[in-house]
Structure formats: C-alpha cells, structure tokens
C-alpha cells in the first residue's frame, strides 16, 4: 500500500490478514487531525472522550450529538488519509433504532465521518443491523465501555472472571457475525484480548487491553500529557505538552507584567 492511499475499512481488514499493526488516535480539532494524519495513523476517532478532555464534563454521559458533529466537522476539514470515525454519544442510539440510524447518518452527512462507533454487544443487535442497512460501517466497542459507568459502579476492568470473559468472547464473535468492521476492546486482561483477537477475522483495536490486539488507540490528550486529572495504567505519555503549555503561559504572564513583551522585534515602527 502506498503511503498516500486513502484508508478504508478494506485496508484495515487487509492489514489484519498481513499482521500489520493498526494505529488509531482520537482528535477533536483540525490542527491535531492534520498532525496525526501526517504522522501516519490509520484511524482518527472523534470520540465522546471529547466531553472529558476538551469540554470539561465529569464523564462522557453529557456529550451530545451536536457536540460530536461540531468537532467532527473541524477534523474532517483536515481531509485525513486516515479513516475518520464518529462516536455515537450516550442516548443517541439507545432509545430507538430510528434515532440510532438518523444520528449515525448525521455523523456522516453533517460531520464528514466515514464510519461510526458505538458501545455494547448483543443487546445492540437491532441498532447495529439497522445502521449497517443504511450502508454506514460500524465499529463495535466492548469491555470497559465508559457509557456503562453507572452499571459497572465505576471504571472497572472487565472480563476478569471466567464467566464474564466467556461473555466478552461471545459478544465479540457476535459483533463480527452481524457485520462490524472492527471492535474496540477496552479495559480487559491482555490474555482475554489476545484470545478475542485470535478468534476474529476483523481487527481488534485495544485500549487498556494489552499488546496482542491488531491495533491500539489512545486518547490524544492523555498521550500528550495534556489531560492530567487522572492517568490510567494503560496510558503511555509520549509528550509532556501540558507542562510545556503551563510554562509558556507563566512565561507570557511574567513577561507582560515585567514589560519584556512585546520587545522591539515584535513591534511595528
Ligand atoms: O471516546 C473515545 O475516545 C473512545 C476511545 C477511547 C476508544 O471511545
């Protein structure tokens, strides 16, 4: 595959068959999407993590479809080579199949997404089938699904006992059978994620699910070290951008107060 070929769901399936790792990141704005795309990520997700890392909500539940569409529009203006995914936020697909199809459609029609992601396994069957019937590719998401925060009683690693592990294996198989093109495996023991990955033809993308998934995803603000409210074990920081920003802001405040900025080179004559 040439570096410039547009990534499609078929590219991702081929990558799995050739055991090539798939790289995915979240993005919420134009500039970040450009930089990620130039770096070579294969998928960009405008995730509902937007709510926590950009909009300041306590969890992902308050995120609205309008908010996802707004940020998707910004990201899609980067015209990424990467496959662009929009996340269906809480209550945009749970209440009715009709809602789900209409809202998934808005992510493509208004936001410029090329596929959608939604949380849940077998109980989402009718919703996923209907979205697929509208020719919208669907990525599944199982394990520690953040929209189920209150049912789980917190952000708890899933699939730790044999019965819940079996259920997740079965859920993943089911999502593949009904036509999802890929599945995010979040917050589960690496051994379970490995077993699921080996049992599927479609690629798995892990977050907190160990190294044996077909690909990995991180929330961009976490990996850059911008979002510091909590840092789960699975996050690796590839930068200390938050610290850099804090230093730049402090330097600017001090220089303005001390009359050092603007200097002559920043001034017109
Ligand atoms: O919302 C999000 O960013 C996600 C990823 C962590 C997979 O769902």
Strand order in space, largest sheet: 1-2-3-4-5-6-7-8
CATH architecture of the largest domain: Alpha-Beta Barrel
Question: What's the β-strand tally?
Answer: 8
Whole-number tally of structural domains: 2
Assigned CATH class of the largest domain: Alpha Beta
State the helical fraction: 40-55%
Q: First CA to last CA: what distance?
A: 53 Å
Examine the coordinates and then state which fold CATH places here, giving the name of the CATH topology of the largest domain.
TIM Barrel
pLDDT < 50 runs, ≥5 residues: none
Tell me about the largest β-sheet: 8 strands, parallel, barrel
Distinct small molecules: 3-methyl-2-oxobutanoic acid
The SS-based structural class is: alpha/beta
Quaternary: single chain
**Can you give the mean pLDDT?**
96
Rg value: 20 Å
Counting DSSP H or I runs of 4 or more residues, the number of helices is 11
Going by CATH, what is the homologous superfamily of the largest domain? Phosphoenolpyruvate-binding domains
Strand content: 5-15%
Shape annotation: globular
Your description of this structure?
The chain has 269 residues and is α/β, with parallel strands linked by helices. It folds into two domains: 9-238, Alpha-Beta Barrel (TIM Barrel); 241-269, no CATH class. The protein has eleven helices and eight strands. It has an eight-stranded parallel β-barrel with strand order 1-2-3-4-5-6-7-8, surrounded by seven helices. 3-methyl-2-oxobutanoic acid binds at residues 26, 45, 47-49, 87, 184, 207, 217, 219.
